């Protein structure tokens, strides 16, 4: 299974589950690793895509916000929810080959 170096799955180990090839889970990020993260309080109608565009200028980085808020359903954010927004340098980093 070839994965582009620009993919969020780049660098993950391959595993076999139920006879099918898959990718291992990424470890969850630790909040302590990014003390310069922001906390955003969600307002009515906001989505992770909108927040990614607001903070990063790129809607496609919504999954970075989702990954840094483990245990939350990324499709179910509600007004008043507090979300951790990782810094741009973390959201756009790529792993070295």
Structural topology:
Blueprint: E1 14-17, E2 20-23, E3 38-41, H1 48-56, H2 62-67, E4 82-85, H3 88-91
Antiparallel strand pairs: 1-2, 3-4
**Low-pLDDT sequence parts:** none
- Count of individual helical segments: 3
From the alpha-carbon coordinates, what is the Rg to the nearest angstrom?
Answer: 15 Å
CATH architecture of one domain: Roll
Q: Quote the average pLDDT.
A: 79
Describe the biggest sheet? 2 strands, antiparallel
Structural class estimated from helices and strands: alpha+beta
Report the CATH C-level class of one domain: Alpha Beta
User: By CATH's scheme, which homologous superfamily of one domain applies?
Assistant: LysM domain
What string, H for helix and E for strand, traces the elements in order?
EEEHHEH
The amount of helix comes to 10-25%
Determine the strand fraction and express it as a percent band: 15-25%
Spatial order of strands in the largest sheet: 1-2
What is the third-level CATH name, the topology of one domain?
Answer: Membrane-bound Lytic Murein Transglycosylase D, Chain A
Give the overall form. globular
Termini gap = 16 Å
Q: For this entry, what is the oligomeric state of its chains?
A: single chain
Please provide the count of β strands: 4
